[in-house]
Amino acid sequence: MTVPRHRTRRDVVRGAAAVAAAALACPSVAQAAPRVAVIGGGFGGAACARALRRLDPRLQVMLIEPNTTFTACPLSNEVIAGLRELRAQQFTYDKVAADGIVVVAQAAKSIDAQARAIGFADGEKLSYDRLVLAPGIELRFDAVPGYDEAASVQMPHAWKAGEQTVLLRRQLEAMDDGGLVVIAVPAAPLRCPPAPYERASLIAHYLKTRKPRSKVLVLDAKDNYSQQKLFEKAWEELYPGMIERIGLSQGGRVTSVDAATNAIVTDFGNYTAAVANVIPPQKAGHIAEISGTADHTGWCPIDPVTFASKLVPNIHVIGDACIAGGIPKSASAASAQGKACAAAIINALAGKPPETPRLDGACYNTVAPGYAFSLKGIYQPKADQYAESEVTTSPVAASRDVRQREAEQALDWFKTITVDAFG
């Protein structure tokens, strides 16, 4: 059913709870209309909820997401560089609700896996037959000494698109020409592994056009990263002398920061930044810990065929939060997992065996206006994890015409994936 706009959040929860209670009271209704709840309204959660309704319109599907507007991370580095406005990244759930999905604009506070119930801060509860968690990531503010949520106001991470994205952009605009921009990159796993290097590229573009005496320093807790040769070729071609990267073996791992002075300490050196972009290590979103689906790594082990949690029955985990082997943590992967998970749930509710999923993924990186490259892959379960079955990357020696076409394809991809998730 479509939720009228004038209904309050409590009305929505009570209405969905009443439907669930009626189903519990009447076994025939329960069999006719199973209840599937999806927590998290990002690319994975929204795609999963919409796929469930498309595959079986009889389902009662509830999307639980406290934010009424979703702000997309893909292309948000262009916002930081002044090439795009934040509003172009923002989407509502109006068309999701129009699909007959009950959108609950509250944060889930508890999960009782035995009772199959989700609790909210106001005491209301929703029951479910199957639950899908798509919580994204949580930033580990305790992982870098000196860096916490308060410090992120001075040293923004901008790793969750929104206010932090705009904050980093404003700091770049306010910086004097000749200033040093430092980007601290954590070890894997992290959301969108090539994104820090795309960010370095687009910040360099901004500096080249506005503050040409400035430089970008990337302090990296890794020695190697995705599409490294393509980035290095682009930096040599577009930003000679503007971007320096120090990898793990050269002392690039950040060991502490001081937000009061914008100081960053590594294994082998100290740096003072005019603008400091500190990206902390990550883990699965908070609800994963509450539900018991996260293990000691902070991420969620799953069955790669069904996305069912290996730790908690009747719960599935998709997107950045899950341990998915060779498939990267990205919007494209989350969307593909959401649809595959929906298909697995439909089969399970019908008593049918699951089909082995074949997930397509694409990752575009824009390093300057009209200059982009990509990695495209097909991923399938193998030995209890996802593995690459086919992967294609852009050629390192491609012409500028090829880079221009890929930049156009990146915009087309973004439009496609956002329409697919949010209408």
Automatic annotation (TrEMBL):
Residues 35-148 form the FAD/NAD(P)-binding domain. Residues 165-280 form the Sulfide dehydrogenase [flavocytochrome c] flavoprotein chain central domain. Residues 1-32 form the signal peptide. Residues 356-422 form the Flavocytochrome c sulphide dehydrogenase flavin-binding domain. The keyword Transcription does not apply. It comes from the Bacteria. Gene3D superfamilies: FAD/NAD(P)-binding domain (3.50.50.60), Flavocytochrome c sulphide dehydrogenase, flavin-binding domain (3.90.760.10). Pfam families: FCSD-flav_bind (PF09242), FCSD_central (PF21706), Pyr_redox_2 (PF07992). This is FAD-dependent oxidoreductase. The lineage of its organism: Bacteria, Pseudomonadati, Pseudomonadota, Alphaproteobacteria, Hyphomicrobiales.
